[in-house]
Amino acid sequence: MPRTTQAFLAAGLIAASLSTQAQDNRSLTIGTLNWAENIAVANMWKLLLEETPYNYDVVLSNVGKSVAFSGVASGDMDISLETWLPATDASYIEPHKDRLDIHDVWYQGAGMGLVVPGYVNADSIADLAGQGETFEYQGQPTIVGIDPGSSISSLTEDAIEAYELPMRQLSSSEVAMMAALDDAYQRQEPMVVTLWSPHWAFAEYDLKYLDDPKNVYGDEEAIHWFSRKGFAEDDPWLTTVLDAWQMDDDSLGSLMAKIEEAGDPEEGARQWIDENRPLVDEWLAAGEDADQPL
């Protein structure tokens, strides 16, 4: 056989192989929020779905909260793994409700509020009204919070007004907030922060929520995953699997703690998967009778 012919055949075989691989690798973009629990579950699902025989090509798109909803609604992202309902995220969903599908609950009992170390002499948000100077941070009575676009940030401004607190909210990142809490905790000094459950901090520190008699932060909620319109028809297998996915304080807390310990989300998630294979196999097995994605 002439070398030229051999070269063309080889090129054709390579092209066919690449085409088959491209068909086998299912593309999935997950809108990911910079929150501990969201980073944890996004990396967990990325690793699971990239395993053989699933062979997804998963991209984690790190975005702000409002962009997660608009991006999924526009189809720039396929899914996002965290929306709190019925109340917290209702305003984020409303503008896009005709272009989003809200799917099943994977975590029950989500909540948020103001949190202090267990050694702090306060049990209610109302107690802070007379203790503002006790919680000085960078020269001012302060509640240390996260990014100003978050629901908990907005609710904290409402709490400051409702309880007439002589305090400001200092918006930062979750990382900066946790660093401030850790520093105060190590020195046994008062500190009040905005926190939510689930969060790894409750496994690492002795913390307590301050009672909220005015119910500013609302009742316990559930965490759902959500998708662009039509995703369930495009990928019934993954929809079935994610609808079967359930985590509780023990499983999610241990995943977040493993990531914190490893110092790397993907490595920590990989270690957790290895240690919890029967649980993740149970989720994945739920899709056995579902149609494969188009």
Key terms for this structure?
alpha/beta, D-Maltodextrin-Binding Protein, domain 2, 2 domains, seven-stranded mixed beta sheet, three-stranded mixed beta sheet, 10 strands, 43% helix, globular, disordered N terminus, membrane, cell membrane, transport
Write the layout of secondary structure elements.
Elements: H1 3-24, E1 26-32, H2 36-50, E2 56-62, H3 65-74, E3 79-85, H4 90-93, E4 100-117, E5 136-137, E6 140-144, H5 151-162, E7 168-170, H6 174-186, E8 193-197, H7 201-204, E9 207-209, E10 221-228, H8 231-234, H9 236-244, H10 249-262, H11 265-275, H12 277-285
Parallel strand pairs: 1-2, 1-3, 6-7
Antiparallel strand pairs: 3-10, 4-8, 4-9, 4-10, 5-6
Helix pairs in contact: 2-10, 2-11, 10-11
